[in-house]
Each structure stands twice: as C-alpha cells, then as structure tokens.
C-alpha cells in the first residue's frame, strides 16, 4: 500500500463549476487533512463556499492559482483560529489558490474581517495567492506571525492586508486598488512589532472613508516600533505612500513613491510620541508633499540621501489641500544629503518645538536644492531651539514676502504655512546668522 503524500479535495466530494454550495465538502476535506497531518490539494475549477474553519495545523494548496473560491450569498471566508481561546495553531500554509469576494458582505457585518481571517497562529504562510474584491480586508490577522509572500491582493474595500498585534514579513506582493489602505501594521498599544514590509508594489490606494490622512495611505505603521519598510514601489495613493504614526525606531529605506496626493512619507506622532527613525535613499516624485517628520514629542530622526522632485500644491480631497513642501521637520532631526528639485513651496522647513529647557535641534547640511519656491526656512524664536545650517546649495529660488534662499520664518500650526519673517535678511550666502541659537557654515545660494 502506498502512503499518500497529500489529500485531494475531490475525494471528499468537492466538485468544481457546479454553482452549488461546496462548503460542507471543503470543510470535510480540511478536517481530514488536519487529522491525518497531510497537505490538501484543491484541483482547478470554481468552488462556491460560505465560511470554512481551520482549527489546527494544515497546508492547503492549488496549482498556479487555478482553484478559484467564490462566495455564495456572502463573502467566501477561510477562518483560521484555534478552538480553545488563548492558544495558538502552530503552522498554517495556504499556497497558489484564488479567492474572489465579488464585493459581497461578510456574515454578521463585522467592522473588521478578511477573506483569509486569522486569530492566533504562530506561523502563517500565505504564498502565491490571488485575493480579490473583498468587501472588507483581503487578509486580516490578529495575534499572529508569519510571512505574506508574492500574493496579488486587489480591490479590497478596506485594506489589502491588516496586521493587528502581530508580526509579519510582507514581501513581494502586489496590492492594488484598496479602498482605504494597502498594508496596515497596527498595534493596540505602542510597542515592539518588528514587521518587515519589503519589495512590494502598492498602488491606487483610495480613501473611501475620507478624513485628513487617517485613510488613503498605501503602507501604515501605527504604534508599531522597529518596523522596516524598504524597497517598495508605491504609486497613486490618495494621501501618503508610507505613514508611520507613533512608531519608534522605524526605518523607511529605498522606496520609490510617486503620485501621492499629500505628503509621500510621514513620520509623525499626533497625540502620542515616538523616538528614533531613519528615512533614507527614497525617491519621491509627483506628490503633494515630500517627507514630513512632525508632532512633538516625536524626535531623533535622520532624513538623508533622498531624491524629491516635482512637488505641487493640489487638492487631495474636496476642500483639503496639500502644502507642496519637499521636507518639513520638527525636533532633533538631521536633514542631510538630499536632492530636491521643482517644489512649489519650501525645499526644507525646520520648525522645532521648544522643550522646557532641553535643547531641540534642527540641522540641515549638504543638501542640493534647485527650482523651489524657497530654499531653507527655520524657526528660531525660542531659547530652547538650536539650528545648524551648512554646506547647502540653493539654486533658482524666489524672493517674495514668503520665500528666500535661507531665512528665519514663522510657522502657523493651524494651516501648516511657513512664511519668511517680514523684513528678515536672506542668509543664503551669509557666514553668520545674527542669532545666538542659529549657526551657519558656508552655504551657496544663486539664481
């Protein structure tokens, strides 16, 4: 007798292309695979299901995504969770199948759910699948870890992949036309997450729920520390390409971001805090803003070696306009080695907060600035602020009531506007600022 190496779902009554409900047969096949410890193969064809449950270790696979799962009267759903609360399934692998939600609702109308819906899995692998047209999320994972690799996730009404209090490697996926966000790394309370978002293509991200940046971002880390977002291609996001909110020690490295409606890359902390971060070697093109590091007490970030070009003031959503600035930074930020070209507003605006006797430092050095409304604006009107500006080149700037090459400025927190101090001297070629808390070394400005 030959010992089987895999089970075939057809042997458990699953019949494709009938238009009839195959849920019970699919569940029987899953149960057999779990109890026998064998992989489950789904032959090619279209299968209509409602919800099936995975409750222990299992592997389910198809062939070249030819097994297509559709919903019948609701969204199809593969629900993965242990039977006993507060326990974990060790390993689940889903490979090379297609799930199409056809925009149908989930049973019970939950606020969050995925067509692959996970809670409590130590090692989840979703690989090479097509996951399309979810009425909410494509994949939704809670209290889990694993890898999401080389999937095509498209047309999700909410988010393509939503990770809540989990840890994942998310790599090589195509996530297109999500209604409110592409990839969301979320934690209930701020803490170590250590997820990696690497080498994905995320595009055409909508903001169906509106707002001023809560939605409409391609890649988000929220209260998630030690997250790396690297080498992704991100295009046509309603708001930001990459947005870190209250997430410490994050790295945003080597991404290509174009067509963002608002600021392409944010590292911010509205209502919270963060410390430490790197934004380096990114390309930002054709956006409503370049890079922002904002919201005290967020601090200690390096913004280096980025290329930012063709930044415009534009309407993001009706009544909400971008500011058209290349780089905006606040407290304890080093801005160095960036190439900035064709920007409607300032190339660099440094608006550090005073911090009750502790110096807040803003430093801009060795940046190349060309064809921008203004070069470098800095706020210096508090004793707890220290500013250093040196080695920058500013070419073809405008001289107006708002702009100059290098100049002290006022920041309006309500509007986000940064404007030259009336009557201030342009310091583009000066060797001394005239302010005790602002140090210059040689810059070069010319038109």
Fold and architecture overview:
With 447 residues, the protein is mostly beta strands. The protein has a domain at 325-447. Helix 1 links the parallel strand 1 (7-8) and strand 2 (40-41). The longest helix is centred in the first third of the chain and has 14 residues, at 23-36. The radius of gyration is 25 Å and the shape is elongated. 49% of the residues are buried.
A few lines on this structure:
The protein is mostly beta strands.
- Mean pLDDT across the residues is 96
Strand content: over 45%
User: Roughly how much helix do the residues carry, as a percent range?
Assistant: under 10%
Low-confidence stretches: none
* Number of helical segments with 4 or more residues: 1
Distance between the termini: 85 Å
General shape: elongated
Alpha-beta classification: mainly beta
Count the beta strands.
44
Radius of gyration: 25 Å
Give the biggest sheet: 42 strands, mixed
List keywords for this structure.
mainly beta, 1 helix, two-stranded antiparallel ribbon, 447 residues
Compile the SSE list and pairings.
Blueprint: E1 7-8, H1 23-36, E2 40-41, E3 45-49, E4 51-54, E5 58-61, E6 67-71, E7 77-80, E8 89-95, E9 98-100, E10 114-127, E11 130-132, E12 137-149, E13 152-154, E14 159-164, E15 167-171, E16 174-176, E17 181-192, E18 196-198, E19 201-205, E20 217-225, E21 228-230, E22 233-237, E23 242-245, E24 250-253, E25 256-258, E26 263-268, E27 275-280, E28 283-287, E29 289-293, E30 299-304, E31 307-311, E32 315-317, E33 320-321, E34 327-329, E35 333-336, E36 339-350, E37 360-365, E38 368-378, E39 385-390, E40 393-395, E41 406-411, E42 418-420, E43 438-440, E44 444-446
Parallel strand pairs: 1-2, 2-5, 3-6, 4-7, 5-8, 6-9, 7-10, 8-10, 9-11, 10-12, 11-13, 12-14, 12-15, 13-16, 14-17, 15-18, 16-19, 17-20, 18-21, 19-22, 20-23, 21-24, 22-25, 23-26, 24-27, 25-28, 26-29, 27-30, 28-31, 29-34, 30-35, 31-36, 34-36, 35-37, 36-38, 37-39, 38-40, 38-41, 39-43, 40-44
Antiparallel strand pairs: 32-33, 41-42
């Amino acid at each position: 007798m030959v010992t089987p190496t895999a089970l075939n779902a057809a042997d458990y009554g699953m019949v494709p292309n009938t238009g009839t409900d195959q849920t019970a047969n699919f569940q029987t096949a899953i149960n057999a695979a779990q109890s026998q410890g064998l992989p489950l193969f789904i032959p090619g064809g279209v299968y209509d299901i409602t919800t099936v449950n995975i409750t222990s270790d299992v592997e389910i696979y198809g062939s070249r995504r030819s097994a297509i799962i559709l919903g019948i009267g609701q969204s199809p759903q593969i629900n993965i969770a242990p039977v006993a609360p507060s326990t974990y399934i060790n390993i689940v692998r889903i490979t090379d199948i297609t799930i199409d939600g056809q925009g149908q609702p989930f049973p019970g109308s939950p606020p969050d759910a995925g067509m692959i819906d996970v809670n409590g899995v130590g090692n989840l692998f979703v690989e090479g699948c097509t996951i399309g047209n979810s009425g909410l999320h494509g994949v939704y994972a809670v209290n889990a870890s694993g890898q999401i690799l080389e999937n095509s996730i498209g047309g999700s009404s909410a988010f393509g992949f939503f990770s809540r209090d989990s840890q994942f490697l998310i790599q090589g996926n195509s996530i297109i036309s999500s209604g409110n966000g592409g990839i969301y790394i979320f934690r209930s309370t701020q803490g170590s997450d250590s997820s990696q978002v690497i080498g994905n293509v995320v595009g055409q991200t909508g903001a169906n729920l509106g707002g001023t940046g809560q939605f409409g971002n391609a890649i988000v880390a929220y209260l998630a520390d030690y997250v790396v977002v690297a080498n992704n291609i991100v295009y046509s996001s309603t708001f930001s390409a990459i947005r870190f909110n209250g997430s410490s020690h994050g790295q945003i490295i080597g991404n290509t971001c174009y067509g963002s409606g608002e600021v392409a890359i944010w590292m911010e902390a509205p209502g919270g805090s963060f410390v430490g971060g790197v934004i380096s070697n990114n390309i930002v093109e054709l956006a409503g803003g370049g890079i922002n590091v904002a919201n005290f007490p967020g601090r200690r970030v390096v913004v280096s070696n980025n290329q930012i070009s063709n930044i415009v003031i534009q309407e993001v959503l009706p009544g909400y306009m971008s500011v058209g600035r290349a780089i905006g930074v606040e407290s304890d930020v080093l801005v160095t080695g960036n190439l900035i070209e064709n920007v409607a507003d300032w190339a660099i605006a440094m608006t550090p907060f005073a911090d009750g006797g502790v110096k807040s430092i803003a430093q801009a050095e060795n940046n190349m600035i060309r064809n921008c409304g203004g070069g470098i604006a800095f706020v210096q009107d508090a004793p707890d602020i220290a500013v250093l500006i040196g080695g920058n080149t500013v070419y073809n700037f405008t001289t107006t009531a708002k702009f100059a090459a290098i100049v002290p400025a006022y920041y309006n927190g309500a509007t986000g506007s940064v404007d030259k101090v009336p009557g201030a001297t342009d310091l583009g070629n000066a060797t001394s600022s005239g302010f005790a808390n602002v140090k210059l070394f040689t810059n070069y400005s010319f038109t």
